[in-house]
Amino acid sequence: MLFWVLALLILCGFLWHYKGQLKITDITDKYIFITGCDTGFGNLAARTFDKKGFHVIAACLTESGSTALKEETSERLHTVLLDVTDPESVKRTAQWVKNQAGEKGLWGLINNAGVLGVLAPTDWLTVEDYREPIEVNLFGLISVTLNMLPLVKKARGRVINVSSIGGRLAFSGGGYAPSKYAVEAFNDSLRRDMKAFDVHVACIEPGLFKTDLSDPVKTTERKLTIWKHLSPDIKQQYGEGYIEKSLDKLKGTTSLVNTDLSLVVECMDHALTSLFPKTHYAAGKDAKIFWIPLSHMPAVLQDFLLLKQKVELANPKAVGLS
């Protein structure tokens, strides 16, 4: 009996793997639109999908990013300057993409553009510190999606939203995690709404990756700028060496940081080209073995493990002192 159970499990595993390998055909007549292509995941995705034969339309924020990408890709790839937080820029771009794609519509929309914003304790921040990542990561993503959706529906294509493990666990104060939690919710509602139109919606949740987005030097500079303007009370509570001690703590987590950006692009590729794409993709060893499993654990365990990475405050009871 045990033998037949094992044989059945092995057969099911084989069929599941085989199913995941089945791909679409006629890639060369399909258009895809990718945001955030100046650097990082978006840049690598644009170059990768151009080589595969897709008609790639790569949205860059800067002229320099656009120029550099054109130099590394074929004539088939087009770039467009786009600020996802500017409604008029998004509308103009959507119309331009419509003119390019024509009756074929848009097979793939990859919402990749994003910013980290300020990562700092919540009581250091103002509402303005939350605004930038929420405007870019959430409202920018929604704006692009709503404007491109008619083209995706025409092609019965795919929408791929790049979220983060920060959409599963809030590992720091600031607007990044709230924006990614909201992206997850938007992704889920969009996925269900688009099923009737044969549009598949997928969410990619990268772990910690070494990109311009997560540059520790820039992150520290932003923290130091905020520190200079904090009240004496808060500075006394946290202690003068708090930021330096936090950096020392972070050095112990470098083994969790992924350097191979292709892990994320491989998820994009499967979501774009598989006959049976997944609804969620975890990218990076840390996401798969730590962050995603931890997100399913009780809050008391999440707090215990994440607080171990926090620096002990100098004098948390120093409230109302000057």
From TrEMBL:
<dbReference type="GO" id="GO:0008209">
    <property type="term" value="P:androgen metabolic process"/>
</dbReference>
<dbReference type="GO" id="GO:0042904">
    <property type="term" value="P:9-cis-retinoic acid biosynthetic process"/>
</dbReference>
<dbReference type="GO" id="GO:0005789">
    <property type="term" value="C:endoplasmic reticulum membrane"/>
</dbReference>
<dbReference type="GO" id="GO:0004745">
    <property type="term" value="F:all-trans-retinol dehydrogenase (NAD+) activity"/>
</dbReference>
<keyword id="KW-0732">Signal</keyword>
<comment type="similarity">
    <text>Belongs to the short-chain dehydrogenases/reductases (SDR) family.</text>
</comment>
<dbReference type="GO" id="GO:0042448">
    <property type="term" value="P:progesterone metabolic process"/>
</dbReference>
<dbReference type="GO" id="GO:0047023">
    <property type="term" value="F:androsterone dehydrogenase [NAD(P)+] activity"/>
</dbReference>
<dbReference type="Pfam" id="PF00106">
    <property type="entry name" value="adh_short"/>
</dbReference>
<dbReference type="InterPro" id="IPR036291">
    <property type="entry name" value="NAD(P)-bd_dom_sf"/>
</dbReference>
<dbReference type="GO" id="GO:0047035">
    <property type="term" value="F:testosterone dehydrogenase (NAD+) activity"/>
</dbReference>
<dbReference type="InterPro" id="IPR002347">
    <property type="entry name" value="SDR_fam"/>
</dbReference>
<protein>
    <submittedName>
        <fullName>Dehydrogenase/reductase SDR family member 9 isoform X2</fullName>
    </submittedName>
</protein>
<dbReference type="GO" id="GO:0047044">
    <property type="term" value="F:androstan-3-alpha,17-beta-diol dehydrogenase (NAD+) activity"/>
</dbReference>
<keyword id="KW-0560">Oxidoreductase</keyword>
<feature type="signal peptide">
    <location>
        <begin position="1"/>
        <end position="20"/>
    </location>
</feature>
